[in-house]
Amino acid sequence: MGTGKNIPRNFLANNPKAVRGEGIYIYDETGKDYIDGCCGALVSNLGHGVTRIIDDITDQMKTLEFAHPSRWNHDAADQAADLIAELTPGDLNYCWFVSGGSEAVESAIKMARQYYVERDGTDSPKHKLISRHCSYHGATLGGMSVGGSTGRVAAYQPLLNPSAKLPATYVYRKPDHMTEAEFGAHCADTLEKEILKLGPENVLAFLAEPIVGSAGGAIVPDDNYWPRIRQICDTYDVLLIADEVMTGFGRTGKAFGVDHWQVIPDIIASAKGMAAGYVPTGGIFVKEKIVDAIRNGSGAFIHGHTYNANPLSCRAVASVLTYIKENNLIQNVFENGKRLGEGLSALGNAHPLIGDVRGKGFMWAMEIVRDKESKTPFDAGQKATAKALAACLDNGLIVYPGGCHINGVDTSIFLVAPPLVTTKDEVDKLLDRLDGGLKQLTGMLS
Ligand SMILES: Cc1ncc(COP(=O)(O)O)c(C=O)c1O
């Protein structure tokens, strides 16, 4: 128990106290170890307690802990931006640093708007945003306006300026009369219809997660989807913003989620694994044409937070990306991700409550259902996700909750997303603990 003065995420939850982290494990006050099977919230991508990262951040702290970006340049920001540009697709060679995912999404939206203002003048009509159902883009008012996670925004609805929402690319719950390819094409085509409805001259950007995170559960679209989305955006002069807050920096076995389809967005928003939990950070990575429009236009992005490009975060990003590169971690995710996916699928087949197993690399979800055949979910009141989390925790494994409201039903899912450093043996250990958790869950839900 804490002192009670820190407002908890949930007053009703009785969370254990974390006292120490090492590698893929977190330890509670009794000394029990838990595999961090979801990196907190897909954040701690290198695992816990990596001395090299801690030393680099400490060194930065001693050398220059802060210098305001309106007055100073510094090496940490340059080094971090150079390393990011090595990883980003196409000519997304420019980086604007922020402190988290919600700020990254806000910055992406504002930069998109400023691009058209620089290009076409302040009376540019481009301002409408299009996003999707079963999506999450952050907790700020802008992030909630584009987010498609009904439960998380209901209380704040009157404060929002909601974007147009397209169907989720939810292959598992697609209409029976469509093949996966037809469904992928259909979902992409809804973008074209929406742009035409709103008027292409008014549409600023389409914003989506390449692989949906917790607001749907590692939903991987059909291969047709992203290339067709890129084409539609090009046809109608609409910017494509990829929210890679969860999927960025190797999580899915490629540097970025969009790399699975060789699609180059106009802006990527990212955070979480970017500094792997060692400090808060985030950023947007931007195409040259957008940065050029600002550089050759007004000369300044009319936006900025105090901690924009702060030395500590930038040094942490540079250190984390160097570590990922030197240890071939994206390749590790690609290889061991197959083992994890196969193991999860085998568990899904063996356990009666798992209706679907989906994902890529080290980003997977299991969907819990009452009946596999009909894909009928549990009623929300049965709290299937919360029970799954508790059962896994009992077995020494931390997984991440998720789900969404789609076609009148509430889905129950959890994410399995271990650190990028996870070895073959550790994958097997995770699967073993998950097996124990699923057996326990079956007892709890029957
Ligand atoms: C896809 C996505 N976008 C944006 C965010 C918001 O990031 P943050 O919580 O760092 O503000 C999240 C956080 O979970 C996310 O998963």
The proportion of residues forming helix, as a percent range, comes to: 25-40%
Major sheet summary line: 7 strands, mixed
Number of strands: 17
CATH-derived architecture of the largest domain: 3-Layer(aba) Sandwich
Domain module tally = 2
Helix and strand layout, with pairings?
Elements: E1 18-22, E2 25-28, E3 33-36, H1 39-42, H2 51-63, H3 75-87, E4 94-98, H4 101-120, E5 128-132, H5 141-146, H6 150-153, E6 164-166, H7 180-198, E7 203-208, H8 225-235, E8 239-243, E9 267-270, E10 282-286, H9 288-295, H10 311-326, H11 329-350, E11 354-360, E12 363-368, H12 384-394, E13 397-398, E14 400-402, E15 405-406, E16 409-410, E17 412-416, H13 424-445
Parallel strand pairs: 3-13, 5-6, 5-7, 7-8, 8-9
Antiparallel strand pairs: 1-2, 2-3, 4-10, 9-10, 11-12, 12-17, 14-17, 15-16
Helix pairs in contact: 2-10, 3-10, 4-9, 7-8, 11-13, 12-13
The structure holds pyridoxal-5'-phosphate.
Protein model, in words:
This protein has 446 residues and is of the alpha/beta class. The chain has 2 domains: 18-49 and 328-445, Aspartate Aminotransferase, domain 1 (Alpha-Beta Complex); 54-326, 3-Layer(aba) Sandwich (Aspartate Aminotransferase, domain 2). Helix content is 38%, strand content 16%. It contains 13 helices and 17 strands. A 7-stranded mixed β-sheet has the order 4-10-9-8-7-5-6, with helices on both faces. It has a 4-stranded mixed β-sheet with strand order 1-2-3-13. A 4-stranded antiparallel β-sheet has the order 11-12-17-14. Helix 11 packs parallel to helix 13 (424-445). It starts with 17 loop residues before the first strand and ends with a helix. The mean pLDDT is 97. Bound molecules: pyridoxal-5'-phosphate (PLP). Pyridoxal-5'-phosphate (PLP) binds at residues 41, 100-102, 105, 136-139, 209, 213, 243, 245-246, 271.
